[in-house]
Amino acid sequence: MLPLLERVAAASAPVMTRTFLEPIANQFNLTDEERAQRLPSGIDNLLYNRLAWARTYLVKAGLLEAPKRGMVAVTEEGRKLLSTGPTLIDLATLRRYPAFVAWASGGSSKTLGELEMEPRTPEFITSAGSANGTPLERIEQAKQELDRALRSDLIARVRAMSPSDFEELIIRLLRAMGYGLGLAEFGRVVGGAGDGGIDGVIHQDPLGLDRVYVQAKRYKEGNSVGPHDIRDFVGALNIHRATKGVFVTASHFTQEAANAASNSTVKVILLDGERLASLMVQYTVGVVVHDRIEIKEMDEGFFDG
In which region does residue 47 sit, left (phi positive, over 0), alpha (psi from -120 to 50) or beta (all else)? Predict the structure, then answer.
């Protein structure tokens, strides 16, 4: 992590992580065989996998930032750390930064970067105690870490979408979840000028007797949905004589907004950025299955037979 941070800091402009692959390999005097080494799955190059995870960890700690897709730049916090002359950046170093601690513990980091790739299991960094537990427990720990990184990057990407694309994403997610029988013709975006406070509608049955109305407020980090937004949505639902609605944001709801939803005259479900990212992962919207691991056990029936 230190060589990566130093090289990004020396760059005069945002740069791609891949740029440093060869220089860092030279710095560590890696042989051709070591440079070509791949993960056990055979999918990813080991060196680039580690470099990608170094980037992820530095971004989550706020030492690097991702000003645009695939690029990284050093932050003031990163320069401040380098000014102390560190000889190593390890997990203990990163734990001094609240953003990293929040992300590593499953919370939402305020520093959200976009990965150039989806890196595999971070073999080169282990948290305290991660070597303990059964093999299945360690696999689950790694899966949770990968999922946290994926959800974090999904939120960052969603917040960068246009309002119309965000609305389309929400309708597509609801269809993937089974609303509208999962059929494209049963769900549509209606947002735009004169939308009356409704961004989308899902027909639960062919005749449209049961409908779910949607409000989608993309919003960026720090710009939360307040109670007035909820009251406006409830008003729109009443105009349409609707009994249920879903309010989605890529940001957060204030407690007052949550209270307004629970006290409304109609059923209103709130989905914030964290919940939205989790549902996208669960229902495979905006994500793909990169790899699968088979875990085999003894077939007792084979030997008992």
Answer: alpha
Domain identity same for 31 and 169: no
Tell me the per-residue pLDDT of 206-251, one tens digit each, with 9 for 90 and over: 766 688 899 998 887 778 999 999 999 999 999 888 889 999 999 9
pLDDT digits (tens, 9 = 90+) for 54-90: 998 999 999 999 887 778 999 999 999 999 999 999 9
In order, the DSSP letters of 152-207 are HHHHHHHHTS-HHHHHHHHHHHHHHTTGGGG-GGGEEE--STT-TT--EEEESSTT
Q: CA angle, corner 154, sides to 104 and 19, nearest 5? A: 80
Taking the C-alpha atoms of residue 295 and residue 12, their distance in angstroms, rounded to an integer, is 47
Domain-located, residue 51: yes
**Structural domain ending residue among the three candidates 107, 126, 159:** 159
Tell whether 150 is covered by a domain.
yes
- Considering only CA atoms, which of 250, 245, 237 is closest in space to residue 279? 250
**Does residue 90 lie in a domain region?**
yes
Would residue 103 count as lying in a domain?
yes
Angle of helix 273-282 versus helix 163-176 axis, rounded to 10: 50
Helix, strand, coil percentages (3-state) for the chain, rounded to 5, are: 45, 10, 40
Range of the domain at 244: 163-271
Q: Rounded to 5 degrees, what are φ and ψ at 58?
A: -70, -35
The CATH number linked to 192 is 3.40.1350.10
Q: Per DSSP, what are the bridge partners of residue 271?
A: 248
For residues 264 and 132, membership in a common domain is answered with no
User: Could you write out the three-class secondary structure of 22-71?
Assistant: HHHHHHCCCCHHHHHCECCCCCCEHHHHHHHHHHHHHHHCCCEECCCCCE
∠ CA 131-20-99, nearest 5°, is 50
Domains contained in the chain, number: 2
Instruction: Give Dmax (Cα) for the chain.
Output: 71
